[in-house]
Fold:
Amino acid sequence: MAEDFANHLRTMQISVATHNRKIVRIRRIFGTLKDYLSIENPFGSSVLLRKEREEQGTLVRRIAFTREQEEAIRRELDNPHRKLMNKAEIKVVYYIGMYTGQRLKDCALMQWRNIDLEQKRIWVKQFKTGKEVLIPIAEPLQAVLREARKWQTDTYVCPKVAARYQIVDERGKEIGDSLVNIDVLRVIKWIGLEPSVATPGRKRKATVYGFHSLRHSFASFCAEAGVPKAVVVSILGADSSIIDRFYTHVGEEAQRAAIEAISGGASTTPEQRIKQVLEYVNSLATVSTEVSHIVSLLFGK
Structure:
């Protein structure tokens, strides 16, 4: 029956990740019942899972916005002719995403207790990872948040968006995140981008542009500005594949230096090596300082 179910999933045109997630969830159910089973976990076999290589050549990655595209989003959010539910609050959500690199849920459910407008700091405990990050507030975001103060009705920065995000259906299933995501995608369509594309072997389209693209953009802009990877990690809250994607060249440079070292192409005197170590230590000492300035350097007026 487990094999039949896995084969059935293979006919459903779903992604490898979705297929494997369904198998693993059922595997866990049987895992909790192990004391009552006289057989091995029927969903424990690795052959029930699909391989990532099955999607090689068809995998679609999220695309980062360019600076011009982000500027176009800001213009459209200020365009009085564009109509959107809770538009003023959606603008705030977008600005938080642009200038902090945080995920949609963290931005939509941001609370005033996490914002210090006087010290220009935002504190976030990320819903997905539980990581805590402290981020300086860029000037454009500061202006938008001060405007948002005027409509404060409860603890949420964007109360209507927060209420919409937390909607559940009659079965108790959370559907609000999808509703807010639809609102966000509408703004992206305003600037002429198609959020989703058809993918071979899948029934549903894959998202290439979405709110999460702001997180990619943030990492991209930091890499372009020469910001140390450690600083970006301290802001985004995780050493994720997003950061690695834009900081691959750092690894390549280190590899090149290693090859030069063993081939004799990078011979140095002991004094030179000591000087290099001291310069490296000094650069590490500036990381905490750069955290305080990074947002304003990248996005400030």
Remarks:
- The mean pLDDT is 86.
- The chain has 14 helices and five strands.
- The CA atoms of residues 90 and 272 lie 54 Å apart.
